[in-house]
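Appendix C reproduces, verbatim, an entry submitted by the partner laboratory led by Prof. M.T., so that reviewers can inspect both the input and the predicted structure.
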Amino acid sequence: MSHTTLISVPGLAQHLDDPAFVIFDCRHELTNPEFGIKAYAQSHIPGALFAHLDRDLAAPLTGRNGRHPLPAPDLFAAWLARMGVSNDKQVIGYDNASGVYGSRLWWMLRWMGHQSVAVLDGGWQAWLAAGQPVTAQVPAPMPGRFTGRPQKAPVDAKYVLEHLQSPAMVLIDARANDRYHGQNETIDPVGGHIPGALNRFFKDNLTPQGFFKSPEQLRDDFRPFIGSGSPEKIVSQCGSGVTACHNLLAMEIAGLKGGRLYPGSWSEWIADPSRPRAT
């Protein structure tokens, strides 16, 4: 069975020794970039490798391409191969931040055409709560052969700017409501949102226990954004193209396929002062 959105804690526990599975620990903190690798070194799911958001799941910054620009596809494919990912492997990502960073890994692999990728539902906290094993032993990856390539170009700032007034695009901002309104902005130098963007805080995709809501609940939640149109008109963005992936994963769980990512998001948008802003 191929897991393409989520995998449960018991489901993953059954495959800890399965050579067909490649598990990535994606823990990260935006304000403390070395948190994840230090936490991983202390303990992680047995067999898991580490994926660093800034170094492995993003490209170098230029000052105009946002805080987490996408890496070049060939470089990302080469990293996946070095980490043991082949086209026939099941990839699993997990974190301790409601699935945010795991969903970035999920989106990137789907972007590269790899369907067998899923996020651990409930993440690190659910794994610990279930009494599952952890280890500090760092495995040596067995290089694989990954030949994926981008299936569809992500949305760029030019596309967003040209479609601000178009019904062909519904822009959804995944940030917390206060940041969307330009309040309590502590990460980016300018507060606010892209004009016309609607707010769907990524944590609204979760139950109070930290698991993703049911497909039916998520479908009901996203229907007001989609209306009678196609999910393909949805463009998901956030601060830097990370939590936006959480909304796209939630839509996929709901069976609402085809939403696109604006990877540069707000941090790229504000790098050009000529682009409009709203609060």
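The chain has two domains: 6-129, 157-269. Additional entries are available on request from the coordinating office.
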